[in-house]
Amino acid sequence: MLTYTVRFKKFEVKPNFTVDYYSIDRYKDAQYMNGQISIYTKQLINKVIATFYRCDLDGINCEYFQTWKLTDICPKLKDPNQLWSRWYSSFDPPMQYPVNKVHYKVKNATVDIGALLLWYPQATDYQWKVLQNVYADDIFVGSYTVEASIFGYRKKIKSIFKP
Known about the structure:
The chain has helices at residues 73-78, 85-88, 113-119, and strands at residues 2-13, 17-27, 30-39, 47-55, 62-71, 91-92, 103-109, 127-136, 139-154. By secondary structure, the protein is mainly β. The strands form two sheets. Strands 1-9-8-4-5 form a five-stranded antiparallel beta sheet, with no helix packed on it. The chain has a four-stranded antiparallel beta sheet with strand order 2-3-7-6. A hairpin with a 2-residue loop joins strand 2 (17-27) and strand 3. The two termini are 23 Å apart.
């Protein structure tokens, strides 16, 4: 049986967002991001533009893949069936809008690989760079970039058959 996991490579933030610390930790066959993110704005963040770049497996030759423009962020963060649901559910305190907390602890963050592979089955053939620009109406608040790949491996299934 082929199983998939995310392999995080890099995490960067820009103005009004800082990463106080972060680590990429491994538990069994999966990787998770842990750390603390600080957001220095009291503006109502109501728009996210996510730009996806797919790169070769070495992460060198990257090309534009597609852009998602998300508005009306509040209900989308609460929807449990989205690609980003596992990522944002790892924030403590929970990510809510309007943003009124400065520091968010991130514990065991990852993305839902099942949703990712339903969206784009060839995702395992590339390394990914995802840039998320965050806005308050048309005012740029900040951004963060995540670089990751999807790693497939064979998981040995224990036999329940006893001779």
